Amino acid sequence: MPYKEIKKSEFYELLKRLLDVFFALVLIFIFSPLIIIVAAAIKLNTPGPVLADTPERVGKNGKPFKMFKFRSMIQNAHTILREDPEFAKLYEMYKQGSYKLKNDPRITIVGKYIRKFSLDEVPQLFNILKGDMSLVGPRAYYPDELREQQKKYPETQDSVKVVLSVKPGLTGYWQVSGRSQINFDKRIQMDAEYVRKRSILYDFIIIARTPWAMISGKGAL
Question: Is residue 147 in some structural domain?
Fold first, then answer.
């Protein structure tokens, strides 16, 4: 997918990468007991893998990558929504709702709680170590989500190009400002605004606001 680069200094990029690796290692250590507990709960609750079996996301410079997330839905949930005729109406609601669903019947009992407190996102710390993601950045979108939403909101095309010029983040500006309550057009605009304004200080401000967003569960679906 096309992208539009908003350049920052080499010092900023190097420092951001060093901080990403440092914080990812620290958080993996802190969350390691919780990672084991959540993984065990998922396996005991429903059959299927511990990690979500979802398609690749769009990363920096439009390149696809596999995002790690704890599985919060039934097995093959992504494929079922798109291909099972029984879910056709639900899929239309999903697209109309900026690729979010309230009261999604595919969510498991354990999944309901780990999504509420964003615990399903913890494995993305390993994406950060790999270099696919950053601690702070825009949302990582599905390819079909970007295509469909740009048709619905054609005015967002420039913002999408800006967003795809950087690594997606584990947390970000819109996630701590309303999260899933924000529709795509506002969300991508906020993501693009972050890319243009990004700095180490701005990242720390977003990081400082993230724990409350997780604990409160505000806007989580």
Answer: yes
**Does some domain include residue 117?**
yes
C-alpha span between 53 and 71 (Å, rounded) = 7
User: What region, left, alpha or beta, does residue 103 occupy, with left being phi > 0 and alpha being psi -120 to 50 degrees?
Assistant: left
What is the four-CA torsion angle of 201, 60, 19, 193, rounded to 10 degrees?
10
**Dihedral of the alpha carbons of 201, 206, 208, 211, in degrees to the nearest 10:** -160
The pLDDT value given to residue 99:
75
C-alpha distances in angstroms, 34 versus 27, 40, 61, 114, 116?
Answer: 11, 10, 33, 11, 15
Q: Report DSSP letters for 116-182, one per residue.
A: HTTGGGTTHHHHHHHTS-EEE------HHHHHHHHHH-GGGHHHHHHHTTS--EEE-TTTTTTGGGS
58 three-state secondary structure: strand
Residue with tokens 């970007």: 146
**Three-class SS state of 45:** helix
**pLDDT tens profile 105-148:** 899 999 999 998 889 999 999 999 999 999 999 999 999 899 99
Question: 48 in a domain, yes or no?
Answer: yes
- Domain of 167 in residue numbering reads as 10-216
pLDDT digits (tens, 9 = 90+) for 185-210: 999 999 999 999 999 999 999 999 98
Residue 128 CA to residue 132 CA, distance in Å, equals 6
Structural domain total, the chain: 1
In a domain, 130, yes or no: yes
